[in-house]
Each structure stands twice: as structure tokens, then as C-alpha cells.
Amino acid sequence: MQYDPIKRSLGNVFNRTPFLRKVFYNLLDLLLLRAWHVHKELRSLQAELKQRGPAINVLDAGAGFGQYTYWLHRKHPSWKILAMDVKEEQVADCNSFFQQIGGTNVKFEVGDLTTYVNPSAYDLVVCVDVMEHIEPDVQVFKNYHASMKPGAVLIISTPSDQGGSDVHGEGEASFIEEHVRDGYNIKEIEDKLRSAGFSKVDARYQYGTPGKISWRLSMKYPIQLLGVSKLFFLIIPVYYAITYPIAYLLNWLDVSVKHPTGTGLIVKAWK
Question: Of residues 124 and 225, which shows the higher confidence score?
Fold first, then answer.
């Protein structure tokens, strides 16, 4: 399924005012299980990052709608955040939004992660739902490593090879057509990050059994219906009113339990 046209449609709805944009970000934080996992990891690193001093520099690599930049901006208004994405229109929309809300510590730029390097600039790099879209992944990992200060940390969220991208067997296509790989083997991504120079790598599964069910309820089925007809926008509130209490409980379980396998990976790597 082509996901980008649906994302553009959502953007057209929620970009109309800063208030609607904030509502959109809050909805993404509630609905997206990956956001629950990423926020958990970011909270776990707060003490470590605090020791690096007040002037924390962050790269949001492949920022998309900017929801993780917004979350970091709200939690840490003193941090300086550069958010990078390849889509010019999306970057322009995000810059406009942050200017309207007074987010002077945030800047969005158009950039290519396969070539971008800013030597020893960042204390934290956040990379969510990006690496499954990039073929030369090791080069990007090397660029991250070169752009990080000593002791800095990288957080990656990406599909695993245990059914990531909703692929469960030979010959099945990814649910999201823009993906260049269906998912990472956990050892594969650990080895690639170490080969790029990272001294310590910690990877774990997300989207275990509860998360798989939640993802279908809160993401896959609504996206499929929106792909059929935009009229589904009219009944989305009713759909989520029925399904979200179940998805919320499933999200909580997925974040709270350690999974022996899962369709997603959360990876932390230190320089």
C-alpha cells in the first residue's frame, strides 16, 4: 500500500492551524505503539543526557511529521533540535508550525541522510521508521556515528524480520510499499552498527503479541480503509471510540513486557 498519499491527506487536515497540529501530535502519541516505546527509551536516557550539560544537541533523523521533535521540544525546551527530512513540503510545514508556537530551539532542514555529516555535533540522534526506507544503511550508520559527540546515543525504531512490515513468509510484499527492506534481524542490525563504529549496542523487540493486535486495530485496518476511500475520515472517530480502549491496554502490555520476539526493534547505540 502507498502510505505517503494517506500521510499527505492527514497533513492537509491537521496543518490548518497550530491547535489542530497539536491535536494531531497528541493523537499520534496515543495511537502509535512505536511512540510509546520511543518515549520510554527517551525517558530512560534523561539522567544520562542531563549529565552532558544543559546544552543538548539533538538530530531527529527522518523527522516525518515532526511528532518526536515536538515531544522533545515540550519536554526539554532548552535542547537544540535539528530535524531533517527529504520532503521539502513537510519540512516547510513543520518550520511554519514551530515558528508559530515560538519553538526557537527547533529547526527543520531538507537533507539526505546518506550524505549528511555534521562532525561531533550531537548528543542524541533519534531515528524512527527511517532505516527501512534506506538501502545504504551502513553508510547512514557511519554518518550518524561521525555526527555524534563521544558518549552520545542513537535511538532507532524499525521493523524486525519477525513479521515486520506485515511480511510473514516468502513472496509476501510489505504492507508499506515504500519500504526497501521488510525488517532487520536483531543480530544483523547490531553487527552493522558495530561495524559503523559504535562501541555499545542494545537491541530489543517491540510489537510482541499485544502490539501486533494493537497495530492492526489502530493502524493497519484504518489505513486500509482510508486507502479505499477518504469517506472513512467521517467515521474514524466512531471507529476509534470503539477500538481504542482495547488498543490502549494492548499498548501498555507491549511496553511493559519483555518480548522474546516481535515485529519491531528498538535499538540504542553509543559512540
Answer: 124
Q: Which domains does the chain have, with CATH numbers?
A: 4-208+260-270 (3.40.50.150)
Q: Give dist(CA 112, CA 160) in Å, integer.
A: 23
pLDDT (0 to 100) of residue 247: 94
Which residue from 185, 157, 168, 149 is spatially nearest to 254, judged by alpha carbons? Answer: 157
User: What's residue 177's pLDDT?
Assistant: 55
Residue 160 pLDDT greater than 90, yes or no: yes
Q: Residue 158's pLDDT is what? A: 95
Write phi, then psi, for 52 (nearest 5 degrees).
-85, 0
Give the dihedral sign, CA 256/50/108/125. negative
Quote the CA–CA distance of 233 and 108 in Å, as a whole number. Answer: 29
Q: At what angle do helices 4-14 and 221-228 cross, to 10 degrees?
A: 90
pTM of the model: 0.89
For helices 18-31 and 236-256, give the axis angle rounded to 10 degrees.
50
Unique residue bearing C-alpha cell 519536554: 75
pLDDT at site 11 = 60
DSSP string, 30-84: HH-HHHHHHHHHHHHTHHHHHTT-S--EEEEET-TTSHHHHHHHHH-TTSEEEEE
Of residues 53 and 25, the one with the higher pLDDT is: 25
Weakest-pLDDT range from 9-13, 147-151, 181-185: 9-13
Q: Which residue's C-alpha cell is 553508510? A: 139
- Element of type H or E holding 27: helix 18-31
- The closest alpha carbon to 128, from 71, 64, 216, 192, belongs to 64
